[in-house]
Amino acid sequence: MIRKKNLVFIPLALALLMLAGAQASAFTYTTEVLGNTITLIEEANFKVIIENTGDFDDFFTISTSDVNWLLTAKPESGIIKAGESMEFAVSLKPKPFLNEGRTYFIPVTIASEKTKFYYEDVKNFAVYIISPDMKGIVYAPTVTPTISIDKEIDPREKVSVLVRLWNRNPRDLEDLKVVVDGEVFSKEYVTHLLPLEDKMNEILFEIDPKTAPGARDLILELYFQDKKIAESSSQYEITGYADLKEAVAKSRFLCRIEQEFKIVNEGNEEGIAEKKFSINFFERMFTKFTPEAAKEKGDDGKTYYVVRAELSPRQQISISAVANYRPLVIIILLIIAGIIMYYVLRSPLVIIKNADPLGKTSDGLSEIKVSVYLKNRSRKPLANLRVVDLVPHIAEIEKKARLGSMEPIHIGKSGKGTVAKWELPELEPYEERIITYRVKSKLTLVGGINLPSAKARFEASQGKERVTYSNSINLVHGA
Questions:
Q1: Any idea which architecture 349-476 has in CATH?
Q2: pTM score, two decimals?
Q3: Residue 148's pLDDT is what?
Q4: Structure confidence by residue, pLDDT tens digits, 120-147
Q5: CB contact burial 104-139 (16+ within 10 A = b; e otherwise)
Q6: Is domain 244-326 in CATH 2.60.40, yes or no?
Q7: Cα(152)–Cα(277) distance, rounded to whole angstroms?
Q8: Rounded Cα gap, residues 19 and 179, in angstroms
Q9: How many CB atoms lie within 10 A of CB 60?
Q10: Boundaries of CATH 2.60.40.1530 in the chain?
Q11: Strands ordered across the beta sheet of 410-414
Q12: What pLDDT was estimated at residue 417?
C-alpha cells in the first residue's frame, strides 16, 4: 500500500524533474565563420552568439578539449541576463607541428555554469591549414561530383541516391547548389564544402508505383554563384511488374446465383488476368459466363472453364458467372402441376376395349369376341353408367345371350353401323365390370376389321355428367 506522504512526494518529484530538464537546456547559440583557411602561424576566427532562454541570469564559457589548438574567446566568459544574448569572438590557433594541406574539425564546448549543461560542437568549427606560399591565391571552384544509384529500381520501394562531392581546391565553397534530376524524381538543395572536403550524402526518393518501366537518366549538376561548375550522370532502369487485384461480389435470389469478379492491374506493365471455374456438367448447363469461358484441362486432370484477358496498367475487367436454375425449377413445377392436374382432372372411369378372333380360317375372319373393361378408380361411387359401342356395317352384334355376360338394353341401327347400349345403376369405388359380346361378319373378313372406341357416360360428384372413351381396335387377319 502507498502511503499518503509518498503520494504527495511523487508529483512534487516529477515537477522538479521537469523544471530541471527545462533549466538544463535553457540556452541556444549560433556560429558564423569569419575566416577558417589559415597558415600555421595564423588563427581562424568565428563569431558565436549565445542566447539565454531561461528565466534566470547565467554564466557561460567557451573552451576546447583539443590540446593541438589554442582557443581564445573575447570576452573569455560572460554573464547573460535572462532572455538576452551576447556575442563572443572566438579564435583558434594551431600548434606548429600540425600538417599543412588538411582540414581539421575542432571540438568546441559551450557551457552553462549554473545548469552545468553544455554543447560540444565539431561540425561548425572546421579549419583548413595551408602553406604560406598558397596564401593569397584565389582557387577556382573545382568539385568532382559522383552520383550513384542501383541499376534496377522497383517503383514500389524507396529509391536511394548517393551524392559524393569532393572539393579539389583549398577553397571554402558556401552556398553550393546541388541539383539531382532522375526524370521521375528530382531534388535541389544548397550545401557547404570546406577546402578539400570529401562529402557523401544519401537522398531517398518515393516515386509513383505505376511509373512505366524502362531506362532513365540520372543527372547531377553543381552550381556556384549561379554558374554550373560540374556535372555527373548515371543510368538506371525501372523494373516492370503486374499487380493484379481481385474483388468479388456474390448475390443470390430466387434460384439465381450471380458472381462478379473485378480484376484490376495496379502494376506498371501488362499482365494476364485469369479466372478459373470448376463446375460439373449439370451446373454448366445452367451457367453463363461473361466474357465467354473456354473449356480447359487442368494439370490436376480436372476440367475447368477459364476466362483470360490481357490487362494494361490501370485497366480492369469484369467477369460474371450466372447460374440460373429458374428454367429448371419452372419445368419441375410444370411437371408437378401437370401430374396434379392429371389426377384432378382425369376420368375416374377406366374403359378398355379388347377383341379376340373366334371364327378364324385361312380365308379370313368370321366371328369376333369383344370385351369392354370398366373400372372405377376413384374413392367415390359412379352412378347411372351408360355404355355405348358401335359395330361397323360389315358385321353385326349377336343377340343371343351367353352365360355370365351382361345383356345390352338396346341394339339398334345407325348410319355408321349397329349400336349396342348397356346401363349400370352404380359402380362402387374400385369396382370392376366386364361387358362381352360377339360380332359376326356378314362376309368373311379377309383384310380384317376396324372397331371404333366405346363410349361411357356417368354421373360423377355433385351430379355432373362425364364421358369417357375407350381405345379403338384394328383387327387384322393373319396378324
A1: Sandwich (2.60)
A2: 0.54
A3: 94
A4: 998 889 999 988 877 767 778 999 999 9
A5: bebebebbbeebebbeebeebbbbbbbeeeeeeeee
A6: yes
A7: 38
A8: 45
A9: 23
A10: 349-476
A11: 410-414, 417-427, 382-392, 455-459, 465-469
A12: 86
